[in-house]
Amino acid sequence: MNKISIKTLPEDEYFLGHKGCGGCGGTLVLRWALKVLGVRCFVVVPAGCMSAIGFIYPQMAFGVNAMIAPFAATGAMLSGIAAVVRARGLENVHVVGFAGDGGTADIGLQSLSGALDRREKIIYICYDNEAYMNTGVQRSAATPVGARTTTSPSGQVTFPAVKKDLLRIAAAHGIPYAATASVGHPADFLRKVERAGQIDGPSFLHVFAPCPTGWGCPADRTIALGKSVVETGLWPLVEWDHGRVTINRQPRSFAPLSSYLDEQTRFRGLKPKDIESLMKERDSKWAALHAWVRESTSSAEV
Ligand SMILES: Cc1ncc(C[n+]2csc(CCOP(=O)(O)OP(=O)(O)O)c2C)c(N)n1
Ligand code: SF4
Questions:
Q1: pTM of the entire structure?
Q2: Cβ(103) to ligand 1 under 6 A?
């Protein structure tokens, strides 16, 4: 297979004509990933924005086999389809799920865990817009501290919250491949999708996907925010490949959080203590990340 790059990305479209908002990061995740994986895909999308905007009869946006899963059941449906693919001896097929952060970090987590445990050849992609967007911006376990949602007004949460670390949760299942990515770094994302497609077993991608409607940012800032979140250190680009952990981009020094936060009205109510919490969470995440890299390197050397 040729190495995928932005220049060699096929012109074919498999997610087009949807009803997503302008600047929707989630739609880019689906569109780009399906360009890499091609037409021989069975796609599962649970309740959420991507199913709401993609399956509007008769204007279906998918150019591949695709079906909607119950909200909690993406992992279960993926592993069921993969079992059928295996039983029928179908070759060169991808079984791929696209779920939001609510459908992944909260309600779909046990189903995802079961699927990763079953070791079928599936690709699970979480497009993370950091809230339940389709039902009106409710807080999820992936909502950052201090972000305003309709269930955390002015960023108030009544308990010490941190963003659930889906990469570490997935990797803890001992699966072959898991990675984070951002729509602000398309080449990195495309390469990771391609790698996931080569894996003989489950793989998991956690992709940063801005939502202008829910975040209160201009529609033309999606890619810029997808870059600045990485530069501030709030969204590390990381890869877990057969137990070896790689940080794909290490900013020499982190950009000020304001370069990312100030563009979004959801962070307008941030208090100094929220910014401090965000920085603390970031710094402890990076410390844990460096320790994870060291640990993975030394165990690979044994
Ligand atoms: C069992 C169940 N509970 C609640 C809903 C209502 N519901 C549909 S989509 C959705 C939000 C999905 O949020 P997320 O998974 O983050 O995806 P996004 O909408 O952000 O793309 C909810 C709560 C449902 N369809 N099924
Ligand atoms: S609400 Fe957000 S996630 Fe949903 S379609 Fe619009 S931009 Fe995309």
A1: 0.97
A2: yes
